[in-house]
Amino acid sequence: MSDTDSPEPTSEETPAPAAPVGDDHHHHDEAERVLDKVRHTRTSAAWVAITVAVLFGVALIDFIAQNTRDVRIEFFTASGRIPIAVALLAAALCGAVVVLAIGIGRVAQLRLNMRRQRRASRSHHRGDKVSDAES
Questions:
Q1: Residue 70 near residue 82 (C-beta atoms within 8 A)
Q2: What's the rounded Cα separation, in Å, for the pair 12 and 120?
Q3: With contact defined as beta carbons under 8 Å apart, do 63 and 85 qualify?
Q4: What pTM, to 2 d.p., does this model score?
Q5: DSSP characters over the chain
Q6: Is 135 in contact with 119 (CB distance < 8 Å)?
Q7: Residue 73 in 3-state DSSP?
Q8: Which residues are CB-neighbours of 68 under 8 A, at least 6 positions away?
Q9: Per-residue pLDDT of the chain (135 residues; tens, 9 = 90+)
């Protein structure tokens, strides 16, 4: 019998002694951090995004296929007949544009406030007096 065929465990096969309870939590956190570094890459994020997009696309195609009946749409003086799926998707997109515009406005407002605060803070540290026109 050769050394590799022996039934006795070698030092590589021998399990390590159990770590103290406090160390076990530390090793678990370390292992999670290593796995996070391995799992979360740009490529994996791209695959997840593609998968979500494909599933969303399939659901959208199914929605459009099941809602082909025409409905009458009237908006101010314009009126016409379009498939209900198109009308609902157009309404959803209009709502998304409104939310996007409000979000952009809010982000711009916050950035402007931060810029003003930084400018005031720098002026205060230099001993300058900030006028109301600057802020």
A1: yes
A2: 63
A3: yes
A4: 0.49
A5: --GGG-SS--TTTSPPPPPPHHHHHHHHHHHHHHHHHHH--HHHHHHHHHHHHHHHHHHHHHHHHH---EEEEEETTEEEEEEHHHHHHHHHHHHHHHHHHHHHHHHHHHHHHHHHHHHHHHHHHHTPPPPTTT-
A6: yes
A7: strand
A8: 83, 84, 85
A9: 555 555 555 545 555 555 555 555 566 677 777 666 666 778 888 889 999 999 999 998 998 888 889 989 888 888 999 898 888 888 999 999 999 999 999 999 999 999 999 888 888 777 655 555 555
Tokens 């997009």, residue?
Answer: 53
How many CB atoms neighbour CB 86 within 10 A?
A: 15
CA distance 40 to 34: 10
* Maximum pairwise Cα distance, the chain: 95
What residue type is 116 in one-letter code? R
As a whole number of angstroms, the distance between CA 74 and CA 80 comes to 7
C-beta atoms surrounding 85 within 10 Å: 17
